[in-house]
Design goal:
Chain A is an alpha+beta fold and 841 residues long. Helix content of chain A is 25%, strand content 26%. The longest helix of chain A is centred in the last third of the chain and has 18 residues, at 814-831. Classes of the chains: A alpha+beta (841), B alpha+beta (355). At the A-B interface, helix 2, helix 6, helix 9, helix 12 and helix 13 of A face helix 5, strand 1, strand 2, helix 7 and strand 3 of B. The complex binds zinc ion.
Chain lengths: 841, 355
Amino acid sequence: MKIPYSWLGEYVDLRETAPQRVAELLTLRTCEVDAVHHVGGGLEGVKIGHVVECGKHPNADKLSVTKVDVGIGETLQIVCGAPNVAAGQRVAVAVPGSKLPNGMEIGERAMRGVTSRGMICSERELGLGDEHDGILVLESEAEVGKPVASLRSFEDWVIEIDNKSVNHRPDLWGVYGFARELACVLGRELCTLPGADLSKAPAGESFPVVVSDDGRCRRYLAGVLAGVQVGAAPAWMRRRLRLCGARAISNIVDVTNYVMFEIGQPTHAFDRAKLRGGRIDVRTARDGETLVTLDGQTRKLLSSDLVIADGEGATGLAGVMGGAMSEVSEATSEIVLESASFDAATVRRTAARLGLRSEASARFEKSLDPEGADAALSRIVAFVEQGLFGSAARLAAPVTMAGKGRGIRRKVIFTWRGVEERLGLTAEEGRSERASWASILSRLGIVLEPAAAQSAEGEITATIPTYRSTKDLTEPIDLVEEIARLRGYENVVPRPLAAPVLPPPSQGARRALVRRVEDRLAALGFRGLESYSFLPDALIEKLGLSSRSFVTVKNSIVVDQSRVRRAVLPSLLGLVERNLALEPDLRLFEVGKGYLPERPRQDPWVGGQPGEPLEVHSVAGVLARSGPQSDHFDGAIFYEAKGFVGSLLDGLDLRAEFVPLDRLVRPDGTFAAKVPAYLHPKRSMIVGVSHKAPRILGYFGELHPEVAERLGLLGISVAGFELDLDAMEVACGEAGARRFTPIPKFPGITVDVALAAPESVRADELEALVRATDAKLCRSIALFDVYRSAELGAGLRSVAFHVELRSDERTLGDADESSFLKALAGRAEQAGFTLRGWSAK
Amino acid sequence: MDIVAIQAELNALEADCLRELEAATDAAQLDAVERKYLGKQGSIKAMLSRLGQLPKEQRAELGKLLNQSSARAEAAAAAARDRVKKGALAAALEDKGFDVTLPGRLPAGVLRPGSLHPLTRVRRELEDLFTSMGYAVLDGPEVELEHYNFDDLNTPPDHPARESQDTFWTTTPGICLRSHTSPVQVRGMRWWRKQGFELPMRAIAPGRVFRNETVDASHEHTFHQLEGIVVGEGISIAHLLHSMKTLLRGVFGRELTVRLRPGFFPFVEPGFELDAQCLHCGGKGCAFCKHSGWVELLPCGLVHPHVIAAGGFDPGKHTGFAFGLGLSRLVCLRHGIDDVRHLLSGDVRVLGSFV
Ligand SMILES: [Zn+2]
C-alpha cells in the first residue's frame, strides 16, 4: 500500500516531521514500512508555463513551434515534439539553464533551424512516471511562473507499507487510518474527515433497496446523484491516485478510488438508467447464475456468492467487481452510488475462486467497519458539492439506508495488573505508568470505565471504537499490545527467565542416534546432504515407482514439486549422475523423512478425519564409482556397501545381520521383507539385528540394471542402502551398552582351513559348518580367500577361513588342532564338500 | 716367548685398535673394530691365552698390562662411539635441501573423509546451545494437518494469513506441507502436559518447511526453520527480550544491538520483529541491510491465549513466548553462501566445501 506523505499531512500536522521520520515512527510503533520514495523532486528549474501560441514547424511535420509564457515578461519560443501540445494549455517548462532529475541540462538550441529555448516536459522527463507519449498538461488554474513543485501533491514522498503487516488492522487500509495512527503516536490532533451532511439531502423518493441476505450485507447505502457530467478528475487528484498506484479513468471512478484510498471504504457507481426495474436487491447468487463483470468476462456464480441484483438479475458481485451491464459511461447522467458493508469471508472466497483480487476485495476481506459506508458516501457527496461530478451534479433524494447492522463498539474487560505482568513490570513500576497508559488508550479512541480508571485496582471496561471492533481489539492481550507498542518497545527492560535447574526432558535418544549415524558415515567418507522432499515425476518413472502412491500436492506452481517421497534413497539416486562427473568416487548420505499416504496416523486431538500420513525417518546412502579401478571387479560395489553398512551399525554398537532375500520366503511363497524395485533382485540384502528380538532395519543392494540404464548409469557401479531410524533406535535400546570382552587367560591358536564346495553353496553356509565343528572353541572365523581353478574342477570353488580356536581352561596344542581338523573334515565330507590340504593322520 | 715380546705385540695391537677406532665413521664400523680387538674372541682379549706361556711370576705383570691396555682401548672405543653419535646427529640436522613445501598426503588405505552438511552443523550448534539452557528439542511432521498448521495457531478458515502463506495443499483434504515449524508449538505443549513435566516449558523444534512460491537466490520452496517456545506463569515481554538477546549472543558470539518492533503473526500477541544492527556495516547502512542499518533476524511474540488454550494450558494462568529462527538464512549468513538454493542442491561442490 502506498501512502502519500502530503495526504497524511492534510489530517495531522507533519510540518515538523519529515517523511523519513514518519516511516521510522510507523516502523517502530505500527507496521513495516518497505520504502519511502521521493517523487517530483529536483524540479526547481521547472516552471508552470502557459502555451500562448502553437504552430507547425516549418521544416518538420511532427514538431510544433510554441510561444510559452513562464512569467518572465517575455515568452519563450520552444520547439515541441509532443502530439498533444496545444495553445491555452498550462504546461511544465524546463527553462534554459535548468537541469532535470534524469541529468539532462536544458539550454538554448536550434531544432531543424528553429531556435528552441527550454523544454515542455512529459511525466517521464519529470521523473513522475513512465508516461512519455505526450507532454504533461497541468490544471488550468495553475499560476504561471511558479515552480511546478508548488502545485498540490506534485512533489511528494510515497510511504510504502508492507500489506502483510496490516492484514490484522482493517482501520489501516486507507490514508486516514494512518493519519489517525500518527496523531496517536505523535500526540497531535487529528483533523476531522470532510464530509457532506447526508441528512440535508433534498426531499424526494429514495432509491429502492432490499437487502435479502442481511447476514452477509450488514449495511447498504445508496445515494442518487443527478446531473452528473462524466469527465476528468482534477489534476491534483489524478496525481495522488498515480502515487497510490492507480490509473486515472474518469471523475466518477477516480473520486470513488480516491475515497477508497483515503478512508479504506470501497464504493461503486451504477448507471441508474441501466438498473433494470429501478431497484436493487442484495442477495445470495443462484447456482448457475451468470454475470458479465466489468472486465468483460462472463462469470458463473455459486450460492456462496453475494450479488447486487436489479429487477432482472445480478448486476454486480458484492465487494468484488461491478457488472458490465450497469457500468457508468460517458453518456451517464444519473448514478446510484453504493457504499456498503459486505461479509469479509464471502468477498474473500468469491474473489479467490474467480481470481478477481481487487483493491476493493482486498479491503472488504479485512472486515471493514460498517460505519465506513456512511463516511465514504458523505465524503463523495462533499466532492460532488465541490463540482467534481460537473457543476449541475447533486444528491437528488434522501440516501437509502438499508441493512440491519451498524458499527459495533466492543467491550473488553482488563486489569492494570494484567498489563504490568505482560510488560514484565512490578505493580509498583506499573502504578507510576498507569496514567500514561490510560492516555494512550484514550488517544486510540478507547473509553475506559470507571472514569478514573488509572487508579482502579479491579476490572476495567474498555469500549473500543467501531473501526477497531470488527476483529482487531477483542481481548485483554490486544490492549496490552496497544499500550506496549505506543509506550515504545525500546522501553522494555530485559529480564532473565527464572526456571528450576532441571535437565531438559529426555527426548534426546533420536537426536543422539542421528548424530552417531552422521558422524560415523562422515568418518567413512560419506558426504551428508539435505535434498528436496519432492520427487520429480521423471525420476519416479525411471526408478519404476509409478505404481506407488505418494502424498501429492495439488496446487504446486511447479510440476516437479508435486509428489512427496516415500523414502530417502530415491532422492539420492537422482543425484548420482550429475555428481559423478565431479567426484568419480561418490559417497552420499542423508538423514531425512518420507511419507506413506496409505497409512494415516490417527490423531487423538483432531477427531473425525484421518491424521497425517505415516512418517518414515531414515538414513540412506549411495555409493557410486565410475571408470576402471584395480579392485573394480563385478559386484565390488555390493560388497563395499555391505562393508559400509556393517561398519555403520558397528559404530552404533549393533551387530548387523545380512539376510539374502530368498531366505525370507514365507511358507505361502510371499516374502517376509522386500527391497524396493530399483534395487537389483539378486544383489540386495535385508539388514537386521537380533539383540533381544529379530528386527529388520532396512536393506542395501546394487542398483537394478534397468533403472541404471534409465538413469544414464549403465556400466557404472552404484549401490545404496536405507535404514529405518525408528527400528534402529529400538535396536540400540535392546543392544544396550557394549560389553567388555575379558582379556583371554590362555593364548589361542589360528588354523587356516579351505573348503572346496559347489558354487551354489554360500560362504555363510560353509562358515556355519566350520563353527558347528566346535562351537565352544571357535572364537572367530574370518573369510580370507575365494579360489577357483581347473584343478578344483568346474562348478567348484574353494573358500578359505582363518579360524581362531581358544579355550578358557587351558592352552591349546597341536593335538587340539588336529582333532578340530579331523572333525571338520568329517563334517565336510558328510555335506559333500572337501577340506583341502588335509589328510587324516 | 718372553714378556717383552708379548708386551711389544700387545702394544702393536693396541695401537692398531686405537687407529682403527679413530678411522671408524659409523656405528657398524665401530662394532666391527670392537669385535676384532675387544670381543670375547678379540685379539687383545686373546692375549690372555698367552699367559700360560709365561713363568708364573710374570703372569701377574702381563695380566696387569693386558687390563690396562684393554681399559685404554675400551675408553677410546667409548669416545669414538660418542664422536660417531654426535656426527650422526649433526648429519641428521644438516640441510639436505629437504622440501617442506611438497603437498601432504595420507597413507594408502586411509579413506577420504566425508562431511556434514552445513545445515547439520548449525542445527547441532543451536541444539547444544538450547539444551544447555534447559530447552528440550522436539520434532514434528513435515506433512501436517491443516488443523495444526493453521486452526490451532489462531488462524481460522478465511483468515487472511492463510492466503499470505503460500501453502502446498495435498490431494487429501485437511493435509498440507507445513508452511512453518509453528505447529510444533501446540503439539509440543500437549506432549509436555501429557508427560507432566515441570513449567516453564522450554522447547525448540528445528525442521524443514515448505512454501509454494517462485524460487530465486534468496527464496526456496523448501527451507529450514527453528521454532522456540516457552510457556509458564508470569512470562512477559521482558523475558522474551532477555531470552532473545541471550540466544543471539550464543549464535553470534557477541552482544548485538537489537530492537523490537511490531510484527503481525496470528499466533502471537503482541507480535514482534526483532532486528539486529546490521552485522556488516554496524548500523551505518549498506547493501546487505538495504541501507536501513537493521537486519530482520527473529520474528517473535507472546503466545496468543488461543494457542495456549489449544495446547491444553490455561490461558488465564499460563503465558509464554515463541520465536522463529530462519535456519537456512543463518547458515547462508554464517558460511557466506550467496544463493539459498545451494543448500538443498545436493551438489558435491557445495558439500565438498564443508569437509
Ligand atoms: Zn548494513
